[in-house]
Design goal:
Elements lengths: L1 H47 L20 E7 L6 E7 L7 E5 L4 E5 L20
Antiparallel strand pairs: 1-2, 2-3, 3-4
């Protein structure tokens, strides 16, 4: 009986920590995807002097497909600025990361306990960047 109690206590501590570990392992899919899109947008801008058209389907900076995040790219009407967003789906629901042409990184939304930031991408509980 004592063994069962010890195992139950260990499981109660270990399972939430393991879940957070798995979530932290999926976050780089969003941050890397946004960074990759930004690089492609900047290369497109160097060649065309505008961001307009860079995010269209089949274009160099078209949003990637990912099982854990939905990527979007919004270019301003004047073609001189953009906003990128990665919104979590499935097990990553609740996470929203953003990036713009000035390389400003934001964590717009995250699940309870993770925190948000207007200056960085939160990658750990408690708002750790």
């Amino acid at each position: 009986m004592v063994t069962v109690a010890i195992v139950a206590i260990l499981a109660a501590v270990a399972l939430p920590m393991y879940k957070d570990y798995i979530i932290r392992g999926h976050i780089p899919q969003a941050t890397n995807g946004l960074s990759d899109m930004r690089i492609k947008l900047e290369q497109f801008f160097q060649d065309n002097r505008t961001y307009a058209g860079a995010c269209a389907a089949g274009a160099p900076a078209a949003p990637p497909t990912n099982p854990d995040f939905t990527f979007t790219c919004n270019v301003a009407a004047n073609g001189m600025s953009y906003g990128l967003k990665a919104e979590g789906i499935g097990t990553m629901t609740g996470f929203t990361y953003e990036l713009n042409e000035a390389n400003v990184k934001k964590t717009f939304a995250s699940p309870s306990g993770w925190g948000t930031s207007n200056t960085c991408w939160v990658i750990g509980k408690g708002g750790r960047c």
